[in-house]
Amino acid sequence: MAKVIFKNIKKSFDDVEVVKHFDFTVEDGEFVVFLGPSGCGKSTTLRMLAGLESISSGDIYIDERLINKVDAKDRDLAMVFQSYALYPHMTVYENIAFALKLKGMTKKDIDVEVLKAANILELEPLLNRKPKELSGGQRQRVAMGRAMVRTPKVFLFDEPLSNLDAKLRGVMREEMKVLHRKLQTTTIYVTHDQIEAMTLADRIVILNDGYIAQVGTPTEVFQRPANKFVAQFIGNPA
Ligand code: ADP
Ligand code: MG
Predict the structure, then answer these.
(1) What are the UniProt keywords, alphabetically (predicted)?
(2) Which of 26, 105, 153, 156 could form a disulfide with 76 if both were Cys (CB 3.0 to 4.6 A apart)?
């Protein structure tokens, strides 16, 4: 587990500042949701942490370690996106095992780790299937399995359920919650969906146009929205 510290982060693309001031600390083991409308800077902020986007100014720390210049693969994070990007020619087992093989782990150790993840995610009966033989929800669980076996210090999710239909989204939301309870890994979860934020988050960071509009627990932001934007976006206009 780990703490993630964003210190006065800014990001511009060409001359346009899309993250204007992001100052926030995610505590050890916490589940934090970045919530806001499309284009407010959620993914860009997450991608700077993941090392997929450079930081224009400010610092990001994972625990005591300044990671601004650390290579993406050395940041000890695992990210799950809305498009699952599974390897189509590999089985579920091989998809989950892939990162461990690259690490040079033995077949026996890989087996242990893959089966452990498959057990938690209830994927055991599907290990020999190919992605095209799976439902959307099953594919999303494989993507989570791939992230899990890397035992990252921090999980990052960018709209992981957006491609699923409403019913499955509800089911997967519950599974996300159970997974977090089991693993307790520090998690940052990006979404524009208020219900996902309300059900999943320990704390919600509400973003609007590159700024933090409010930080609080689901109850706090719902009952005491800091401003008009939050009230309207959360759907509880005062
Ligand atoms: P969100 O995830 O909240 O929908 P993003 O972080 O993806 O928002 O985008 C924030 C703003 O930055 C948007 O206006 C988007 O068009 C812009 N943007 C994102 N990535 C790039 C890029 N690579 N080049 C130029 N503009 C970008
Ligand atoms: Mg986004």
Answers:
(1) ATP-binding, Nucleotide-binding, Transport
(2) 153
